[in-house]
Write a structure and sequence with these properties.
homodimer; 5-stranded parallel sheet; 4-stranded mixed sheet; 8 helices; 45% helix; globular; cytoplasm (chains A, B); ATP binding (chains A, B)
Chain lengths: 211, 211
């Protein structure tokens, strides 16, 4: 029997290091599949369709939602964001785990979906709000107004920390990376995530019978 | 708020390496407390009261059971075995995890007790029955009859593998040891096992309010 892939949900306020951690996890485990979100927002300089996001018109996005092709979706700052379902289901059936870099709204929807029992959810907290703001400002790409909006969103995001299975405080990126790997490695050792065990134990029983 | 200690249950047929693994875990984490079982069986050469077991008369053992001082107990090969409750509760309140080297009967009783939600249970399988028997015989202390009895008990023990949270196949002791450490480290990162997080997030919220 094939192992069903896990849905690994990583959430955090922006600036807490989530995207860097997601990249490091992807580099560590080449079997991991990253769930590229669809969005109606305009691409930023350097962003590429299908890499950072699938950039879609509002009409195209709404059609995907209407046809049940979104695992989760939500509106943030007037734009829609969502996770297309098809690639996730394909990965699960292949026994590959999918990594989601999404916010609490998406996390909540996936946890409450029929795929909820395959979810491992991890929330990454910043060591302090001062540090969070410093990291946001150091990107130097956004206006004060945009930063203020992001900080308000961060406060809302953090208020959902207690809905996650695991919580990390990212005060050291290497340590947080190691912790994520530990969580993922342990979750894969759960009995109900190792379908081959049944066959293995049947083999042991045949050995007992043959003695 | 103080973290409540975990109850880590390690079960396996004898000869699967469980006791060696338990010793290695204890050496790795000095905060871990080993639950010494009480038994009515006679000490074997080299065994010491309070180290391998608390050796008790049947009357003393039955008194402990009657007074609710046993977290779990069972009869195996005509002898009683059980885990005294007092030291476990003391460790939990101190925030220390307790390691139990017990069989499926004990595991089942603790999982179904009021302490069940603090349990992390791990079953260790041998790579093969031939290897299990080889390890049992290499101890060279027991008669053929005793070995046969142990092998029958092993078969019964293995039949309960699917009641455990995690399952390992011990075909390499160092690898199995690393896996156990990974499981324990991850379980300690679960949100509901980190009571200090609430206070930490209250601190972040105060920082938001002060901006």
């Amino acid at each position: 029997m094939k192992r069903r892939g896990l849905l690994i949900i990583l959430s955090s306020p922006s600036g807490a290091g989530k995207s860097t951690l997601a990249k490091r996890l992807m580099a560590w485990d080449p079997t991991l599949r990253f769930s590229v979100s669809a969005t109606t927002r305009a691409p930023r300089p350097g962003e590429e369709d299908g890499r950072e996001y699938y950039f879609r018109s509002r009409a195209a996005f709404e059609k995907m939602v209407a046809e049940g092709e979104m695992l989760e979706h939500a509106e943030v700052f007037g734009n829609f964001y969502g996770s297309p379902k098809g690639p996730v289901q394909a990965a699960m059936e292949e026994g590959r785990d999918t990594l989601f870099d999404i916010d609490w709204q998406g996390g909540q929807q996936i946890r409450n979906s029929v795929l909820g029992k395959d979810v491992v959810s991890i929330f990454v907290l910043p060591p302090s709000i001062a540090e969070l703001e410093r990291r946001l400002r150091s990107r130097a790409q956004d206006s004060d107004e945009v930063i203020a909006g992001r900080m308000a969103k961060s406060e809302a995001e953090i208020s959902h920390w207690a809905e996650y299975d695991y919580v990390l405080v990212n005060d050291d990126l290497d340590r947080a990376e190691a912790d994520l790997k530990t969580i993922l490695t342990a979750e894969r050792m759960r009995r109900d995530r190792q379908p081959d065990l049944s066959g293995f134990v049947r083999g042991l029983n045949r050995e007992f019978d043959a003695r």
